[in-house]
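User: Some background: our group keeps a shared notebook of sequences we're curious about, and every so often someone picks one and asks for a predicted structure to add to the entry. Today it's my turn. The entry only has the sequence so far, pasted here. Could you supply the structure so I can complete it?
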Amino acid sequence: MNIPEMLRERAKKEIRKIVLPEGEEPRMIKAAEIVYREGFAELVFLGKEEKIKSTANQLGVSFPENIEIIDPESSEALRDYANTYFELRKHKGMTIEEAKKLLQDPLYYAALMVYQNDADGLVAGSINATGNVFRPALQTIRTASTVSIVSSSFIMVVPNCNYGENGVIVFADCALCIDPNAEELADIAIASANTAKILIGVEPKVAMLSFSTKGSAKHPMVDKVAKATEIIRQKTPGLKVDGELQADAALVPEIGKRKAPNSQIAGEANVLIFPDLQSANIAYKLVERLAKSEAIGPITQGMRKPVNDLSRGCSVDDIANVIAITSLQAQGIQ
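Assistant: Of course. Here's the predicted structure to add to the notebook entry:
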């Protein structure tokens, strides 16, 4: 299954507007050419129009005539956005003058665009650190009402594999939450299930992983996973979830039936929730290298509206794929 192609095709069904605060970055401009050619999103570039168009010409990239470019420093919306940001942050000591200055920063301007429904999502991080991308977003867009924490997931595409959805499995959290408590782990699972539903289009079957299956071992780390499972069932009673489960019980049907005979997802899991960042990060990198699998992500989840952070080493295709993911998340949220 070619997941990137599938994501782009599905994104075409309901075109969403994605803002690119790093609009002058050459990789963003080259990725935009892919987006326009395949037609899976509408884009807004932030930056100097002359610089963006000059870079596009140097790269041999042709844009549609109606391309939208906004320079935050001279934007007609700057004053309104600054007033909105001031109202949101005045309890923290923000002044209107400080707000006007901050809103000239494309990352803050982009966050306000999404907050004000002038864009459906934003993609950044090719030249900015993760903290700089998320700080304005968390101050304005904030987390979704169903969860209390922003987390991440990877879509793992494992060749010649029958587990999950024919080798497609969501892993979480591999990038953000270092040592979540039971409540946070539950929110990571709920958000990851939503990611599987929106992006892959499958019914999520969530396994809460541990080194124990249904009480086969006793330890506080096991207790955390079991407690998280109960919290999920209380918050989202319709979600198919079980835990604690060992990885083989979660994925292999015959082992799942033997170790957890009363489970509705054992041996059929397509979403794997690891107990901490250490185990999740190790697992996805091992699967990526040893099984020669494709790791699509990290995908940010848990925001009220989609914000995705790129690696600063991202490729042009990576950017195009994340734009498609962001568009699909916007479709699912709206």
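Suggested note for the entry: Residues 117 and 224 are 38 Å apart (CA to CA). The mean pLDDT is 94.
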